[in-house]
UniProtKB/TrEMBL annotation, chains A, B:
Encoding gene per record: purK
Domain ATP-grasp per the UniProt entry, residue ranges: 99-285
Organism: Marinobacter xestospongiae
Keywords in alphabetical order: ATP-binding, Ligase, Nucleotide-binding, Purine biosynthesis
Entry binding sites for ATP: 95, 135, 140-146, 170-173, 178, 201, 255-256
Protein name: N5-carboxyaminoimidazole ribonucleotide synthase
Length: 368, 368
């Protein structure tokens, strides 16, 4: 079976690395002009002229990013099986649609309002009570197109700063930590859940994910599963879905979802029985899902901007290096390291030791 | 770094899958006309016209099979770093040279003689005492070009049957089991040993490898390490080397070595901290070696001839499937399954259960 991947970055690369052992081959369709997957056939198509050509070469289609135009996804879906479905894409591209769906399914979200002017932004900030976070309703990514308002009087500046005609305004959530749950759903409706990961972001970029998340109460765990299960079933979803959540004193509050394999699931390559990448390929191909159990305790450390001392990291007997073969650039995800351990105590010092070889890596701040 | 691989079969494929996460890219040089690696750039060169072209594209060269003509390897070595060195290749292509080297290094072998006629074969059988095994001195592979003599009178028929001008005749070894040790040596001379595997062959084809080998005494383990270390250092070897051994009441006896990653090391993909493939790439690239510790108990089951019920295997929560994307053909290696467990008892029933989905798979006969 030949799988077409829309996008040709590191997620596509890791999907392919997981799919070859299942006898899949891969064709990447790149809209950016700078594919980095580095393996498989790549069709670079900045002007959108070769989509039909791409489709004739593949049996099934999936994607590695949620910013694909929905009309393109729908056009593809009319010709070849596309997983996940275009509706999942549509929901993820529009925060208002996403939060509305969360609400319909009983998944808690921060209180929110829509603002379509500086004035309505100010009014939303007053109604919700500051601080609030204003985000462009579409096209936001990794903290871009966002502003925090400490007072309603900051609305004018925030509106101008974001420069988007429609914003979603969220009441600030007083959370103790950020977590994510990743699950896969097969063609037959079977669902498999990965252990929840605890995530640590710095300057809007994920730096650490620890899995299984420490000190996770069983009822909170069940809550997370019920939320992602509701989404998977409602969307008749096939593939891997990620749900980012805030943990608060009153339970979990959904931040956003991503219709794909996710950076907070990279630990699964060595840290779970079946990686998120393999399970996505299994689901998209119509195979049974693989076991999502953790193998010990894992922490994923992102390599951001600079590679650091890679030879030193390769010498660590508990570290697995995954490079994306990209040139260094500030803020760019260049790779990640998976740290394995048999206990949280062991994991803590191993992570700190590894991080010391990564320049600019923030201090490990997950409470194990 | 771009690595050139001489050969384009499943070993090359698995080397590439392990090498991409270390930011390597791959060019395969295929002499067979039927490459199966399925990823990376492949130069098919049945007539040997494109070797120079291949060499201009790569930084370092390795190989996935030991049947490469030594003069080709030497020609390459004059232009690019080749690991392992051509001498290792030369030794492995000639059983007499191999056994002579083993003898020089104090590595026990079966008693052996050279035969260059039916008459000298008969004489060798008489001197050694039957049963003996006669093997073509060069070009033998997976039990081909071999004959067992139960009596010296069978020499004429065996000589004609093998049809090779120079044979090595070995006294039959009364062994309790077949094991193999795999080790990697880095450019700096560092050596890392994998746990010994116990191997079960049927009709000359490896069917099961269990690692770590059960009931392995520490002194026998040390013996195996000292033998492979002697070979690695004598050959100034860089990369992964495999040494196949018979375990007897008097200790270990060397069968043969392979200058490459080996089927009996496929369990390392999920069963060891660093796979044999990654360690070979690390060594060839001049990186530090990775941790060779086992992660629990593993058994590799080869998929031979027919694929069987792959969906059933994918449903097993302890099985990892590795397909080579090849068409079915009797006796052909199509893939393997790695079974993981936390104890030998658990491993036994898991292996038996998985094998039940593989048509023609012989009964699991490793004594755990």
């Amino acid at each position: 079976m030949r799988i077409g991947v829309l996008g040709a970055g590191q997620l596509g690369r890791m999907l392919a690395l997981a799919g070859y052992p299942l006898a899949k081959s891969f064709v990447f369709y790149d809209l950016s002009g700078s594919p980095s997957a580095g393996l498989g056939e790549v069709i670079v198509d900045r002007d959108g002229d070769y989509l039909d050509d791409f489709l004739t070469r593949v049996d099934r289609v999936t994607y590695e990013f949620e910013h694909l135009p929905v009309d393109v996804a729908e056009k593809i879906a009319a010709l070849k099986p596309v997983h996940p479905c275009p509706r999942a894409l549509q929901v993820c591209q529009n925060r208002e649609a996403e939060k509305t769906l969360f609400g319909e399914l009983g998944i808690p979200t921060p209180q929110w309002r829509i603002a379509d002017s500086a004035d309505s932004l100010r009014q939303a900030a007053e109604e919700l009570g500051c601080p609030v976070v204003a985000k462009s309703n579409t096209e936001g990514y990794d903290g871009k197109g966002q502003a925090v308002l400490r007072a309603p009087s900051e609305a004018e500046a925030a509106w101008t700063g974001i420069g988007h005609p429609r914003l979603i305004v969220e009441k600030f959530v007083d959370f103790s930590r950020e977590v994510s749950i990743i699950a896969a759903r097969g063609e037959d409706g079977e669902v498999a859940y990965y252990p929840i990961a605890e995530n640590s972001h710095h300057e809007g970029i994920l730096r650490y994910s620890v899995a299984p998340a420490p000190k996770m109460a069983a009822d909170v765990d069940d809550q997370a599963k019920s939320y992602i299960r509701a989404l998977l079933n409602e969307l008749n979803y096939v593939g891997v879905l990620t749900l980012e959540l805030f943990q608060t004193a009153d339970g979990l509050v959904a931040n956003e979802m991503a219709p794909r394999v996710h950076n907070s699931g990279h630990w699964t390559i060595e840290g779970a029985m079946t990686s998120q990448f393999e399970n996505h390929i299994r689901a998209v191909s119509g195979h049974p899902l693989g076991n999502t159990d953790a193998r010990g305790y894992s922490c994923m450390i992102n390599i951001i901007g600079e590679h650091g001392d890679l030879d030193a990291i390769m010498r660590l007997p508990y570290a697995h290096l995954h490079l994306y073969n990209k040139a260094e650039r500030p803020g760019r995800k260049l790779g990640h390291v998976n740290i394995l351990a048999d206990s949280y105590d062991e994991l803590r010092w191993r992570v700190k030791n590894c991080a010391s070889f990564l320049p600019g890596c923030p201090e490990f701040d997950v409470d194990l």
